[in-house]
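Extended Data, panel c. Modelled sequence:
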Amino acid sequence: MEATFTDPMNETRKRDLGGTDLSPPELLKKIEQLEVELVQKEEKLLEMDLLDEQVSQLTDGIRSMAKSGKQDMLLLAQTMNELQRKLKEKTKQMMALVAELSMKQALAIKLQQEVRDKEQFLMTVSSRIDQGLPPPKEIEIEWLKVLRNEKMQKDAAEARAKRAAEEEQAAGPGCVHTTAEQRPTAYVPHDEYSLPLPRPYGARPPFKPSEPGPNMRHFRKPVEKPIEI
Protein backbone atom coordinates (compact mmCIF):
# COMPACT_ATOMS: atom_id res chain seq x y z
CA MET A 1 0.00 0.00 0.00
CA GLU A 2 2.89 2.36 0.74
CA ALA A 3 4.48 1.65 -2.64
CA THR A 4 1.17 2.30 -4.39
CA PHE A 5 0.63 5.70 -2.77
CA THR A 6 4.26 6.85 -3.10
CA ASP A 7 4.55 6.03 -6.78
CA PRO A 8 4.18 9.36 -8.72
CA MET A 9 3.43 7.56 -11.94
CA ASN A 10 0.38 5.87 -10.54
CA GLU A 11 -2.68 7.91 -11.51
CA THR A 12 -5.00 6.01 -9.24
CA ARG A 13 -3.15 6.89 -6.06
CA LYS A 14 -5.14 10.12 -5.63
CA ARG A 15 -8.83 10.98 -5.64
CA ASP A 16 -10.09 14.45 -6.44
CA LEU A 17 -12.63 15.90 -4.06
CA GLY A 18 -15.69 17.47 -5.53
CA GLY A 19 -16.86 21.02 -4.88
CA THR A 20 -15.44 24.47 -5.40
CA ASP A 21 -13.50 26.82 -3.13
CA LEU A 22 -15.07 30.07 -2.05
CA SER A 23 -13.86 33.30 -3.47
CA PRO A 24 -12.10 35.84 -1.19
CA PRO A 25 -15.20 38.08 -0.85
CA GLU A 26 -17.26 35.05 0.06
CA LEU A 27 -14.62 33.96 2.56
CA LEU A 28 -14.64 37.43 4.15
CA LYS A 29 -18.41 37.34 4.36
CA LYS A 30 -18.27 33.87 5.90
CA ILE A 31 -15.69 35.07 8.43
CA GLU A 32 -17.84 38.07 9.36
CA GLN A 33 -20.84 35.79 9.79
CA LEU A 34 -18.82 33.45 12.02
CA GLU A 35 -17.57 36.42 14.06
CA VAL A 36 -21.15 37.60 14.55
CA GLU A 37 -22.16 34.13 15.65
CA LEU A 38 -19.13 34.03 17.97
CA VAL A 39 -20.14 37.34 19.54
CA GLN A 40 -23.67 36.04 20.03
CA LYS A 41 -22.34 32.86 21.60
CA GLU A 42 -20.08 34.92 23.91
CA GLU A 43 -23.05 37.06 24.95
CA LYS A 44 -25.06 33.94 25.70
CA LEU A 45 -22.09 32.56 27.62
CA LEU A 46 -21.88 35.77 29.68
CA GLU A 47 -25.60 35.56 30.37
CA MET A 48 -25.19 31.95 31.43
CA ASP A 49 -22.24 32.91 33.67
CA LEU A 50 -24.30 35.69 35.27
CA LEU A 51 -27.22 33.35 35.72
CA ASP A 52 -24.89 30.72 37.15
CA GLU A 53 -23.47 33.26 39.61
CA GLN A 54 -26.95 34.28 40.73
CA VAL A 55 -27.99 30.67 41.11
CA SER A 56 -24.80 30.01 43.10
CA GLN A 57 -25.59 32.92 45.41
CA LEU A 58 -29.13 31.64 45.89
CA THR A 59 -27.94 28.10 46.56
CA ASP A 60 -25.32 29.38 49.02
CA GLY A 61 -28.03 31.29 50.88
CA ILE A 62 -30.31 28.28 50.88
CA ARG A 63 -27.42 26.08 52.06
CA SER A 64 -26.60 28.46 54.92
CA MET A 65 -30.29 28.60 55.83
CA ALA A 66 -30.41 24.81 55.79
CA LYS A 67 -27.35 24.62 58.07
CA SER A 68 -28.83 27.15 60.47
CA GLY A 69 -32.11 25.25 60.27
CA LYS A 70 -30.31 22.03 61.23
CA GLN A 71 -28.72 23.78 64.20
CA ASP A 72 -32.10 25.18 65.20
CA MET A 73 -33.65 21.74 64.80
CA LEU A 74 -30.92 20.24 66.98
CA LEU A 75 -31.48 22.86 69.68
CA LEU A 76 -35.22 22.35 69.41
CA ALA A 77 -34.82 18.57 69.72
CA GLN A 78 -32.59 18.97 72.78
CA THR A 79 -35.08 21.37 74.35
CA MET A 80 -37.94 18.99 73.59
CA ASN A 81 -36.07 16.05 75.16
CA GLU A 82 -35.36 18.10 78.28
CA LEU A 83 -39.01 19.14 78.51
CA GLN A 84 -40.15 15.54 78.07
CA ARG A 85 -37.80 14.42 80.85
CA LYS A 86 -39.11 17.14 83.17
CA LEU A 87 -42.67 16.21 82.24
CA LYS A 88 -42.03 12.56 83.14
CA GLU A 89 -40.50 13.57 86.48
CA LYS A 90 -43.44 15.85 87.26
CA THR A 91 -45.85 13.07 86.28
CA LYS A 92 -44.13 10.65 88.67
CA GLN A 93 -44.19 13.24 91.44
CA MET A 94 -47.87 13.92 90.79
CA MET A 95 -48.69 10.19 90.87
CA ALA A 96 -46.79 9.84 94.15
CA LEU A 97 -48.69 12.81 95.60
CA VAL A 98 -52.00 11.33 94.43
CA ALA A 99 -51.14 7.99 96.07
CA GLU A 100 -50.11 9.75 99.28
CA LEU A 101 -53.32 11.81 99.20
CA SER A 102 -55.36 8.62 98.79
CA MET A 103 -53.61 7.10 101.82
CA LYS A 104 -54.22 10.27 103.84
CA GLN A 105 -57.88 10.27 102.84
CA ALA A 106 -58.25 6.62 103.86
CA LEU A 107 -56.54 7.37 107.18
CA ALA A 108 -58.78 10.40 107.72
CA ILE A 109 -61.89 8.30 107.04
CA LYS A 110 -60.65 5.65 109.48
CA LEU A 111 -59.92 8.25 112.16
CA GLN A 112 -63.32 9.86 111.66
CA GLN A 113 -64.95 6.47 112.10
CA GLU A 114 -62.93 5.91 115.28
CA VAL A 115 -63.99 9.33 116.57
CA ARG A 116 -67.64 8.50 115.91
CA ASP A 117 -67.23 5.14 117.64
CA LYS A 118 -65.56 6.77 120.64
CA GLU A 119 -68.29 9.40 120.85
CA GLN A 120 -70.98 6.72 120.72
CA PHE A 121 -69.15 4.69 123.36
CA LEU A 122 -68.77 7.79 125.57
CA MET A 123 -72.47 8.53 125.27
CA THR A 124 -73.27 4.93 126.23
CA VAL A 125 -70.99 5.06 129.27
CA SER A 126 -72.38 8.44 130.35
CA SER A 127 -75.95 7.15 130.11
CA ARG A 128 -75.07 4.06 132.19
CA ILE A 129 -73.39 6.22 134.84
CA ASP A 130 -76.40 8.55 134.92
CA GLN A 131 -78.64 5.52 135.47
CA GLY A 132 -76.42 4.29 138.31
CA LEU A 133 -75.22 1.23 136.39
CA PRO A 134 -71.60 0.03 136.31
CA PRO A 135 -69.51 0.80 133.22
CA PRO A 136 -69.29 -1.83 130.49
CA LYS A 137 -66.91 -4.77 130.69
CA GLU A 138 -64.66 -3.23 128.05
CA ILE A 139 -63.95 -0.25 130.32
CA GLU A 140 -62.89 -2.56 133.12
CA ILE A 141 -60.57 -4.48 130.80
CA GLU A 142 -59.03 -1.26 129.50
CA TRP A 143 -58.57 0.02 133.06
CA LEU A 144 -56.84 -3.21 134.08
CA LYS A 145 -54.56 -2.86 131.07
CA VAL A 146 -53.68 0.69 132.09
CA LEU A 147 -52.90 -0.43 135.66
CA ARG A 148 -50.79 -3.31 134.36
CA ASN A 149 -48.84 -1.02 132.03
CA GLU A 150 -48.22 1.45 134.85
CA LYS A 151 -46.98 -1.36 137.10
CA MET A 152 -44.68 -2.68 134.35
CA GLN A 153 -43.28 0.80 133.76
CA LYS A 154 -42.72 1.28 137.50
CA ASP A 155 -40.95 -2.10 137.79
CA ALA A 156 -38.79 -1.30 134.78
CA ALA A 157 -37.84 2.08 136.26
CA GLU A 158 -36.94 0.45 139.60
CA ALA A 159 -34.86 -2.19 137.78
CA ARG A 160 -33.01 0.50 135.85
CA ALA A 161 -32.36 2.47 139.03
CA LYS A 162 -31.11 -0.66 140.81
CA ARG A 163 -28.85 -1.54 137.87
CA ALA A 164 -27.47 2.00 137.79
CA ALA A 165 -26.76 1.85 141.54
CA GLU A 166 -24.98 -1.48 141.15
CA GLU A 167 -22.92 -0.15 138.26
CA GLU A 168 -22.02 2.95 140.26
CA GLN A 169 -21.01 0.79 143.21
CA ALA A 170 -18.98 -1.51 140.94
CA ALA A 171 -17.21 1.48 139.42
CA GLY A 172 -15.62 2.37 142.76
CA PRO A 173 -11.90 1.98 143.50
CA GLY A 174 -10.73 -1.61 143.85
CA CYS A 175 -13.78 -3.02 142.07
CA VAL A 176 -13.61 -4.82 138.73
CA HIS A 177 -16.66 -4.87 136.53
CA THR A 178 -17.16 -8.23 134.83
CA THR A 179 -19.99 -10.12 133.21
CA ALA A 180 -18.41 -13.55 133.74
CA GLU A 181 -20.24 -16.07 135.89
CA GLN A 182 -18.75 -16.63 139.31
CA ARG A 183 -16.65 -19.80 139.54
CA PRO A 184 -16.16 -21.78 142.77
CA THR A 185 -12.77 -21.27 144.37
CA ALA A 186 -13.10 -23.96 147.07
CA TYR A 187 -14.69 -27.34 147.65
CA VAL A 188 -16.09 -29.16 150.67
CA PRO A 189 -14.70 -32.66 151.19
CA HIS A 190 -17.25 -35.41 151.69
CA ASP A 191 -15.04 -38.22 152.94
CA GLU A 192 -15.41 -39.56 156.45
CA TYR A 193 -11.87 -38.73 157.45
CA SER A 194 -12.08 -34.99 156.81
CA LEU A 195 -14.05 -32.20 158.32
CA PRO A 196 -16.73 -30.62 156.10
CA LEU A 197 -14.82 -27.37 155.78
CA PRO A 198 -14.17 -25.53 152.51
CA ARG A 199 -10.76 -26.22 151.04
CA PRO A 200 -9.19 -24.16 148.27
CA TYR A 201 -8.64 -25.79 144.92
CA GLY A 202 -5.14 -26.52 143.74
CA ALA A 203 -3.48 -25.44 140.51
CA ARG A 204 -6.31 -26.86 138.41
CA PRO A 205 -9.68 -25.70 139.67
CA PRO A 206 -12.81 -27.26 138.15
CA PHE A 207 -13.99 -25.84 134.88
CA LYS A 208 -17.58 -25.19 133.93
CA PRO A 209 -18.68 -27.27 130.94
CA SER A 210 -20.15 -25.34 128.05
CA GLU A 211 -23.79 -25.55 127.08
CA PRO A 212 -24.64 -28.34 124.62
CA GLY A 213 -24.63 -27.08 121.06
CA PRO A 214 -27.36 -27.46 118.45
CA ASN A 215 -25.62 -30.50 116.95
CA MET A 216 -26.63 -32.52 120.03
CA ARG A 217 -30.03 -33.00 118.45
CA HIS A 218 -28.41 -35.56 116.14
CA PHE A 219 -27.53 -37.82 119.10
CA ARG A 220 -30.12 -39.97 120.78
CA LYS A 221 -29.99 -41.10 124.34
CA PRO A 222 -29.15 -44.81 124.48
CA VAL A 223 -31.88 -47.12 125.61
CA GLU A 224 -30.86 -49.31 128.50
CA LYS A 225 -31.60 -52.94 127.85
CA PRO A 226 -32.90 -54.95 130.77
CA ILE A 227 -30.53 -57.50 132.20
CA GLU A 228 -31.92 -60.99 132.10
CA ILE A 229 -30.67 -63.41 134.73
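The first helix runs from residue 2 to 6. This feature is highlighted in the accompanying rendering.
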